[in-house]
Write a structure and sequence with these properties.
alpha+beta; 434 Repressor (Amino-terminal Domain); Umud Fragment, subunit A; eleven-stranded mixed β-sheet; 4 helices; 18% helix; globular; disordered N terminus; Transcriptional regulator, XRE family; DNA binding; LexA/Signal_pep-like_sf
């Protein structure tokens, strides 16, 4: 795999805490006044209808890249754009692939690391953040083949995983390792790690006891899914 060149450094604008309610009201007003269903917005920006509903009700933060896609879809900018504080775009290293069913010998991995831009969260140390590229169809309801995920190392997380979290999972079979993304469901002592796919091959969870054990290990928390653009 060849290295991906760096994009020119730039600055993005994201909403401060005080502006988020105004942003939500502006988006909801645009949808209402123009009679655009939430389903159309969710499809255009690559989020589930539930995620859009929670975003508009204030139960979910509007992220910088999501705001950019919303504005592009609506063909308009929020009236408070000039007031939004600038935040530097950082770079994170893509260190590997997540692919269900692909057990590989880590001694013979030929993956070439490369950098992608992302908006850093100041809560997490830079050295605890990595990225992966998604391969295959095991989470195609959430991320497609070729999309990226931003991951916080499990050792830097403020709590253990819990139901609803998206996590990066390592499963070992002898000297071979499978690295995948799963959603946590269940409760302490009876965790299930689920794919999220419309592909019949990926409809069963990994069932683990406690925090996994020797063969199944959660190595990170997915902080964000970065979707690719138009594909031809």
């Amino acid at each position: 795999m060849t290295s991906v060149p760096r994009v020119p450094e730039r600055r993005r604008r994201v909403a401060s805490n005080g502006d988020r309610e105004l942003l939500r009201e502006w988006i909801a007003g645009q949808l209402r006044d123009r009679r655009i269903p939430q389903k159309a917005l969710s499809s255009a920006i690559g989020l589930s209808e539930d995620a859009v509903s929670r975003m508009l009700s204030g139960k979910r933060t509007i992220k910088a890249d999501e705001l950019k896609r919303i504005c592009a879809f609506l063909g308009a900018s929020p009236p408070l754009t000039a007031q939004l504080p600038a935040r530097d775009v950082s770079y994170v290293k893509v260190v590997g692939e997540v692919a269900a069913g692909a057990f590989i010998d880590m001694q013979y991995v030929d993956f070439v690391d490369y950098d992608i831009p992302y908006v850093a969260d100041p809560r997490w140390p830079k050295e605890a953040i990595t990225a992966y590229i998604v391969r295959g169809e095991s989470i195609n309801r959430q991320a497609r083949d070729g999309d990226h995920i931003i991951v916080l190392d499990a050792s830097a997380a403020p709590r253990p995983y819990q139901s609803g979290d998206w996590v990066v999972v390592e499963q070992r079979c002898g000297d071979l390792v499978e690295t995948t993304v799963k959603q946590v469901r269940g409760s302490e002592g009876a965790w299930e790690l689920w794919p999220d796919s419309n592909d019949d091959r990926f409809q069963r969870p990994l069932v683990v006891a406690g925090n996994g054990g020797d063969n199944v290990r959660v190595i990170g928390f997915v902080l964000d899914f970065i979707r690719s653009g138009t594909r031809f």
